Amino acid sequence: MKILGIETSCDETAAAVVEDGKRLLSNVVASSMDLHVQYGGVVPEIAARSHIEAITPVIEQALEQSSCSWDDIDAIAVTYGAGLGGCLLVGVMTARTLAITKKKPLYAINHVEAHVYVNFLTETALPGYALPQNQPVFPLLSLIVSGGHSQLVLFRDHFDYTLLGQTGDDAIGEAFDKVAKILGLPYPGGPSITKAAVDGDPYAFEFPKAKLAAKYDYSFSGPKTAVLRAVQKLCDKPHDFPSFKLTELLADAQKADVAASFQRIAVETVVDKTILAFEEFSPKSVVIGGGVAASPELRRQLADRLLIPIEYTDMKLCTDNGAMIATLACFKMQLGQPTADPYSLEIEPNLSM
Ligand code: KG4
Ligand code: ZN
After folding, report:
1. Whose CA is nearest to atom 23 of ligand 1?
2. Which residue's C-alpha comes closest to atom 14 of ligand 1?
3. DSSP of 307-327, one letter per residue?
């Protein structure tokens, strides 16, 4: 079984072919990130226009790289939510058209669920991929941490899952991006904070961890405001002082201390909940998805505190890609889950787990 997966929910135009839910045959990603850097965040209209330009060549390359013709493809899968409306539309309309003209079944895929499923890929002949040796087993605890999502989900089996908790405000990656902005560090903020934190003292500041009523929910707005207040204090400026002028007043050593302290607290926040869920549900596997999986601090804290080891997939598969979409669709097809109607599938920008 070979499935073509298409992903356009944010700034990556991506397509990939996956076989039997475990073998990666191709993975092509065109990112419009370069166009967004100057604005300090993804501009939805620019991202959507980039998808229109990139989608056809990206799909053609994914087929070519996998040495598949359309005859070899058993189904098409596409992200229909969650994501940016204009961006999702490009992928969904493309997939609907292809499903009709190439006469293939169509699978509508939940983007966040797919971030979990990419961890089932264990084989590839493509160069430069380090994949897990073993597929995860159920019950499976998954932590999805990216610029758009921060969710903790327990899978009892395929398609039998519970959303345990999520952020009440910013996603963790988004919080990194905003704190980086306060410190005058370049976008995307995660890698910038990681870099700045290397020279900093993670205990220089004790930023607060939000306490929420729901056991597995968390929040990043409190710690983020605490960072702003700490920086204002360091610069000896009042709360109404323009925040973009603060960065010129900060020494590199101060930025490093704030970055390291925020990184420690933000990561601790999600790791605390992961450990709590691990103790309550005794999962056999734990997987991490999303761009923040790149964080060395996250990996260090999980390795320190979690009783079982985590097999991380390749970083190229932690960020948005078509392989995760195709992998989930393989399990849908194998287990007889319903297909989507190519004449009527709609996008769902606010789709939840
Ligand atoms: O999964 P992803 O590529 O896109 C979304 O679907 O959002 O995640 C991007 C996010 C950004 O917010 C970025 O700051 C964060 O992942 N990120 C990191 C690191 N590398 C990327 N966060 C913390 N530490 C990192 N090393
Ligand atoms: Zn994503």
Report:
1. 190
2. 190
3. SS------HHHHSS-HHHHHH
105 Cα–ligand 1 center, Å: 33
Confidence of residue 38 (pLDDT cuts 50, 70, 90): confident
SS3 per-residue string spanning 33-64: HHHHHHHCCCCHHHHHHHHHHHHHHHHHHHHH
Q: Is the CB of 83 under 6 A from ligand 1?
A: no
Instruction: Find out whether the beta carbon of 295 lies less than 6 Å from any atom of ligand 1.
Output: yes
User: Which residue type, as a one-letter code, is found at position 88?
Assistant: L
pLDDT tens, 185-223?
Answer: 998 999 999 999 999 999 999 999 888 889 999 999 999
CB 104 within 8 A of CB 17: no
| The token pair that represents 74 in the structure block | 């058993």
Structure tokens, 221 = 């707005």
Name all domains of the chain by residue range, CATH numbers in brackets: 2-132+315-334 (3.30.420.40), 140-305 (3.30.420.40)
pLDDT at 353 over 90: no
- In the 3-class helix/strand/coil scheme, how is 228-265 assigned residue by residue? HHHHHHHCCCCCCCCHHHHHHHCCHHHHHHHHHHHHHH
Global pTM?
0.94
Q: Is 9 in the pocket of ligand 1 (CB under 6 A)?
A: no
